[in-house]
């Protein structure tokens, strides 16, 4: 089962995909968000169709104490619109520290600051998705 992982922010959406067996996550692209949510959703629908995605996983930003803050509420509202546009199961995954982990991996790989800025969101999506895949949530 191919899963698409999303790291949804105000300015960008990081997109990652699992391999067809659901073992590994690969960063795919960063969608630059504008004022038109339909354009963002249409791009996601294109990716779903092109890669035969069967499930969508959205990173849900939580506060360190586990509560939802304003950004978490924005992501939940985004998920509702996503469900209206794309008829697939949508799950959420705790994304706390995913950007930190992605940043650390890029630093260890000696990626320049300007390049990190361009890829950090899709790397964070891959970290979120890999955590989900590693949990065994889609196996069995």
From TrEMBL:
Its EC number is 3.1.-.-. Pfam families: RuvX. It comes from the Bacteria. GO terms for biological process: rRNA 5'-end processing. One of its GO terms (molecular function) is hydrolase activity, acting on ester bonds. Residues 1-102 form the YqgF/RNase H-like domain. The keyword Cell inner membrane does not apply. Keywords: Cytoplasm, Hydrolase, Nuclease, Ribosome biogenesis. GO terms for cellular component: cytosol. It is found in: Cytoplasm. Its main location: cytoplasm. Belongs to the YqgF HJR family. Could be a nuclease involved in processing of the 5'-end of pre-16S rRNA. HAMAP family: Nuclease_YqgF. PANTHER family: POLYNUCLEOTIDYL TRANSFERASE, RIBONUCLEASE H-LIKE SUPERFAMILY PROTEIN (PTHR33317). This is Putative pre-16S rRNA nuclease. It comes from Desulfotomaculum nigrificans (strain DSM 14880 / VKM B-2319 / CO-1-SRB) (Desulfotomaculum carboxydivorans).
